[in-house]
Amino acid sequence: MDFAYTSEQESLRDSVKRFVEREFDWEERFRIIRSTEGVAAGHWAIFAELGWLGAGLSEAAGGFGGGAIENALIAEELGRGLVTEPFIAHVVATQLLAAIGGDVVADLIAGLVMGEKRIVPALQEPVGRGDWRLIETKAEGHVLNGVKSLVEGGATAEQLIVSAQDGDSTSLYLVDLQTAGVTRTIYRTLDNRRVADVRLDNVSGTLLASGPEADAAINRAVEHGIVALCGEALGVMDTALWTTRDYLKVRKQFGTAIGNFQALQHRMADMLIETEMARSILFHLLGAMADGDDDARAAAISAAKTQASSGGIFVGSQAIQLHGGIGVTEELNISHHYRRLYVIARQFGDVELHLARFAESVDRLV
Amino acid sequence: MQSFYSEEEKAFRAEVRAFVETHLPPELAQQGLHDYHPRREDQSRWVRILAQKGWSVPHWPTAYGGPGWSGVQRFIFEDEMRRAHAPTADRIGTELVAPVLYTFASEEQRQKYLPAIRNGDTFWAQGFSEPGSGSDLSSLRTRAVRDGDHYVVSGQKTWTTEGHHGDMIFMLVRTNSEVKPQAGISALLIDLNSPGITRRPIWTIDEGLTVNEFFFDEVRVPTENLVGEEGAGWSYAKFLLNNERTNSAEVPHTKRDIAQLRAIAQIEPKNGRPLIEDAGFRARLARIEIDTMALETAVLRALTADSHDGGSVASLVKVRGSELRQRVADLADEALGDRGLAICLNPEGEHRMFDDGLTSPVADYGIGIAAKAMFRRATTIYGGANEIQRTLIAKTVLEL
Fold first, then answer.
1. What residues in A contact B134, CB-CB < 8 Å?
2. Domains of chain A, with CATH numbers?
3. Inter-chain touch A338–B269, beta carbons under 8 Å
4. In chain B, pLDDT over 90 holds for what percent of residues?
5. Model confidence band, residue B244 (pLDDT cutoffs 50, 70, 90)
6. What span, in angstroms and rounded, lies between the C-alpha atoms of B86 and A270?
7. Chain B contacts of A254, Cβ < 8 Å?
8. Which CATH superfamily is domain B124-231 in?
C-alpha cells in the first residue's frame, strides 16, 4: 500500500501551485471575476503549455500518460486559489472523447490537449437537478431538441458534447455553438464562474457515440469529473481550514487570541476531521479508479462526492462563522471559499443523489 | 391552558389581516415577494399608513404612541406583516433605539426624536461594533472628547446595519479611558449629515448592501445629544441588545420563508413529480416546520412571562432561530435545483455591487433565493454570535 505521490506528480503539483501564486493572487482574482469573461486571457494557454490539459489522460488516448490522480492533484491546487478556469469540464470532455475513441475523436483530443480547441460537455439538464443520467434532450436523425444547464466553460466554448435520447438509447453529439438553432444564455454562478444554459431547437449535430458505448463513456467521464471535483473540494477545504486557523491566532477579543477559546478550538478540530476524511476518501477513490470493478468504483465515487459535499459545506460555513462578520464580506476570501464549496456540493449530484447511488452500488457488491 | 390562542387573540389576528388586505398597496406586497431589503420610500409609505391607524410602533408604551398591545398581540401583528410581505419599518429605530430613548433619554430628546420614528420620517442606524470590537464590544475605542458644549467624536464603526438609509445614528463612544472599559462608555445621538462623517458600503457574500462602515473625523456633536448619563452607555447598550436578541428569533420571517419554500416545491419538478411529493424533501421540510413550531411556542412563552429573565430565553431562541433561518434558506435554494446556483441581481436594481450585464436564468419565483441563502450565513454571527449566546446560556441558566 502506497499513499505517496511520485516525483513527477509532486512536480506537477508544484507547477500548478506556482501558477496560482504568480498569476492568481487575490487582487488579480478580483479583477478576473469582475471581468466580462470571468477568466483571464492567456491562462488557458499556460495550462496547455505546462501540460496540465493532457496530464490526466493516457498516452493511448492522446495524453501524457497520467490519469485520475493527476487530474485530482491539478484540481486540488486550482481549488486553493479558487481558479475560475473550467478545468473540471475539460476533464470530462477529454475523458468522454477518450472513451469513445476513433480517428475523428483523436483530432479533437489533440486540439483539447494543446489548448487550441474549446470543447465542453453539456450533459446536465434542469430537469435532472444535478443527475446527469436524466436526459430529455431528443435526437432524431441527428437533429437535437432540448435544454442543457450549468454548462461549465460554456461561455468560452466553441463546441459542445451533448447527451441526448435517441429512441430508447443514449447518444452523444458534437454540436458547434455557431449552428443555427443554438441559444446560449451565459450567467454567473454563486462562485463567480461563467456558465451557460443552452437551448437546442432543431440543431444538427455530429454523432460521436450511441447506445451502450455512449452510456459507458458518459459514466466514465463523469466519474473522472467527480474525482477532479473532489480534489478541488479538498484544496478549497484545506485552504479555508488553515486560513481560519491563522486568523484565530491573531484575532483578539476579551484580551486574548480567540483561538484560545475551547468552543472555537473544538470547532476547528471538527473542521480538520472533515477535511482529513475528504482527503482519505479521495485516496480510496483514486485506488478504486485503478481497479476494474465497476460497482466498487461507483460506490467509491459516490462516497467521495458525499464527503466532499457535506464536509465542504461544514468547513466552508464554519470558516465563515469563526471569522465573524468579516467572513460574510465580499472582499475577504473566506466567503468565496464557501461559495465554491456550496456549488461543488451540488455539481454532478448532491448528497441525496450520491447516498442513493452509493447504496445501489453496494447492494450489487454484497 | 385551554387553547393556544384566546378568542380575543384570534379576533385580533383577523382584524390585522383585514386591515392589511385593504390597506397594503399591492405594489408594495409585490416588492416584498423577493424579500430583498425594502426601499426606504416604500418603508416610509407603509409606516405612515400604519401610523394613521396607530399601529406603526407595536411595542412602544401608549404614552409615546404605542397601541398598548400585549406581547402576544405584537407577535401576531408581526406574523401578519410577514405573511403579507409588507415592508418592514426602520427596525433599528423602532425596535432598538426608541426603547432606549423612551426608557433613558430626557423628555426633550423623546419629544424631538420619537414622533419622527413613529411616522417613518427619520431612520436610524446603530454604531456599536468596531473593527477591533465585535463580540468583545466593551473594548470599543471611538472617542468622544468634551469641548465646551460639544463632544468631538473620532473613530470608526462597522457592521452598521442599513446605515445607508440612516438619518441619525445611536453611537456608543468612549468618554473616559481612565476607568474600567464598561464604565467609560457613553451613548450619543449623532446626525449622520454632520461634517466629518464618511460612509463606506460593505458588500457582502450575497453581493448586496446591508452593512456599512462609518468613519468619524472630529465630528462635533452637541452635548444635549448625550443619552442619560455620561459613562452609563454600557447599561443602555445591554438593554438594547437584549431587545435585539428577543427579536432575532425571527419566527414570523421563518414562517414566511417556509410558505415560500412550499410554493417553490409545488412548482419545481423532481423525477417527473412536484418536488413537494419527494420523500427526502418532505422529511427535511417537516423537520424545519417542527423546529419552527417549537421555537414559535418558546417565543410566545417568553412573551407571556411576567418577569424579565435577564435575557437567557432571548439567547436560546436567538441560537435556534438563527440556525433555522439558515436551514430554511438553504433548503429553498436547493429546491430551485440548478437555478439555485445562479447569481441573479436584484431586479429592482437598488444597491448592486456590480452589474455583470448577464441574463439570469432564474424564474420570478426564485429571484432572491440564492442571495438569501448566502447572506443567512450572517444570522449566526450578528446580534451576538451564537458562540457568545451559548456561553451566556451556560453561565446564566446552567450556572456553569
1. 253, 324-325
2. 7-113 (1.10.540.10), 119-210 (2.40.110.10), 214-365 (1.20.140.10)
3. no
4. 81
5. low
6. 41
7. 135-136, 139
8. Butyryl-CoA Dehydrogenase, subunit A, domain 2 (2.40.110.10)
